[in-house]
Fold Putative histidinol-phosphate transaminase.
Amino acid sequence: MSVNHGANLYELSAKYGFSKEDFMDFSSNINPFGSSKKAKQYVIDNIDMVSMYPDPEYVELKKSISTYCKCNSENIVLGSGATELISSFIGTVNPKKAVLVSPAYSEYEKELNKIGCEIKKYYSKKENHFEIDPKDLANTVKEGGYELLIICNPCNPTGFAFSKDQIREIVSTCGCYVMIDETYVEFTDTSKYSSTPLVDEFDNLFVIRGTSKFFSTPGIRLGYGLISNEKVKEAINKRLDLWNINVVASRMGEIMFVDDDFINETIEHMSKERDYLESELRFLPGVKVYNTYGNFVLCEIVDRRMTAEELRNELIPERIIIRDCASFDGLDEYFFRVCILKPEENILLISELKKIFG
């Protein structure tokens, strides 16, 4: 992974003499409690399925996603990870002008630049605690005649999230395509913050999700997009390869999207640990903590005693890696992000930060 996408554990292990497994990677926003045991056990028990082609229509996989997301199965497109779908959608709608809510994941801007799109960045601001007025955003897009609006919801790295009702207001007002990246929405209350049910209602809405973060399966490269616009959906599917989802990813998806025990336990564990981290971080002198709906917490060193890079370098010998957020457009060198890991690791992080900040 590039430095802009988190820590390179291979490089750090060679430099500091630790094994990759020794590091506590608080820069990685993947569910630390692992993936669905039911799905993994199915793969173990049915490993001979690797000699089979997947169903080219992925009927059962789409049925599971439809149940999970509360949308029509015919409105689902599948991709080899969320990033492939980001690229496919942007390339398909081919906007001349787009609004990008920032700071944000760098791949959105990268894909817009590939097609020569004019980009307006709509910045959330720290003086507003990174909260955004949906009416002002929608009016900015509409009045500027923009053809695409891109939102990460909840936003990485700020943690801010629009509610489903606010997204409905934005989509119905702005008059253009809206792409919502919901990579982190499953770590919060999806009934309030997820836009997936709105896809059946609006044909200018495209919602993207992946299984890397919440389901802790970055290795199977399974992503999915939801859109009811037949023309766009057909064009995206033409860009994708036949059997673009391998049989292991397909079968795991069929199981884990309806594995309620795994889903509920993950939400319970992550909510408890997020509350702990947020609460303890707020006690650190000279550190401001921003509210979050993701599985990460954005912090700012407000007393300027050190930069985030200096803090990161001080923690690495303790085998702790945090995310220096200076690479995010709109954040300066005093912002850092910590993701939620297991209880014992979260406790150790707080202990080390208390030593540094007093």
